[in-house]
Amino acid sequence: MERPLIALIGNADQSENPDLARKAAEDLGAELARRACRLLVFSSSSAFVEWEAVQGYLKSKAKKAPKSIEVRYPPELDGKFPGEMQDDPLFVRAPQGGDWEASIYPSFANIDGLILIGGANTTKIAGLLALGSKTPMVALGGMGGSAYKVWNYLKGDRNNAATDDELNLMANRGWSENSAARFVEALLAQRERKQELERRAALGESEEHRRHVLTLLALIGCGLFVVVLLALVESWVSQELSRVFLWRLFGAPAIAGASGAAIRVLWDNWAQRAIPLQVRPITMTVALGLWASGVTGALFLLSQVWILGGLDLAHGGKLLGSAITVGLLTGLTLDKVFPKLIKAEVPVELKFAGKKLPKSEEPGSSG
User: Fold this and answer.
1) DSSP of 2-50, one letter per residue?
2) Per-residue b or e along 239-276, where b marks 16 or more CB atoms closer than 10 Å to that residue's CB
3) Which among 265, 270, 287 has a CA at the least distance from the CA of 332?
4) In which band, very low, low, confident or very high, does the pLDDT at 97 lie, cut at 50, 70 and 90?
């Protein structure tokens, strides 16, 4: 996993206590190194707090990986930091065109956090950009400058990732040996919360797509099954057996099964003690109930017709009630019946009028 890239911006001279602000920047740089974060700065001038932050990072005894400090700067601010060697592997220098602001603002697309200390107009705009892009941020508002203005904006924006405790921490006017650790911890905690929200959003989109695809498959499966029933009905239409009667005979078990499957879901959720309830998608539930009960009912009817040697209106009326019962029970016990159907086992006993179809002559058996 790539290490977090944390930008630090500000001007100690614009704060209420410049010496304290410089001390804070140096401590924060050292803490970022200790936490294995990368540091992004936009100037190597001693007039800005980036100077102290880099000094603190370099002085830290923590092990530092190559490319740990990234410097994005316009041509007039291209000086080296004390201790920085030519082509130093610890640094990544990325010259930018235009003025200083042009170096800063595009960076919000790929930074993981922002620290503001003192500062004036540029610091304020950077803070507003971070708010708009929901970039994790800590503004040392207690030290004054534009960081204080940004802290006020943070307090008013309840959609940001900062907690009340973190906002109270930013308002501190003092600085102690533990302050840097607390500020960096708050910043990284915001980053984790933001990443968790992004993961949930991605999962939500993935789940929505999965449900859409499954619903489409359910509708296609039901449509194709209706075509199969249509072919079955048309093969038996006669003067005695009308289409309406045959559709009732073969379609009623499927409808009964769909209702049974829906009621089973209702029962399962009524008996469920956990909150929130886990409800199955209705389209998939009805589709599975319709298909399984329709297939089971058709297999039941075909086996009885085979025993009778044909189908007439009198026997059809008697079979309709049994077929509906079979379909309804199939829907209610879908979790047990469907696995048997997948294994090509008929989950009903093929009996009619005291006769039982021989095992070797059941539909689907090999002779």
Assistant:
1) PPPEEEEEEEGGGSS-HHHHHHHHHHHHHHHHHTT-EEEES---TTSTH
2) eebeeebbebbbbbbbbbbbbbbbebbeeeeeeeeeee
3) 265
4) low
CATH number for the domain running over 5-199: 3.40.50.450
Alpha helix stretches (DSSP H) within the chain? 18-34, 50-59, 100-104, 121-132, 146-156, 164-170, 179-236, 243-271, 282-308, 313-332, 334-342
Q: Identify which of 110, 103, 115, 113 has the alpha carbon closest to the alpha carbon of residue 72.
A: 103
Round to whole Å and give the CA distance between 111 and 130. Answer: 10
Nearest to 331 by CA among 248, 258, 224: 258
- DSSP class of residue 114 equals E
Domain ranges of the chain: 5-199, 237-361
pTM over 0.70: no
Residues 220-266 pLDDT 10s: 888 888 898 888 888 888 888 888 888 888 888 888 888 888 888 77
Provide φ and ψ at 144, rounded to 5°: 85, -165
> Amino acid letter at 362?
E
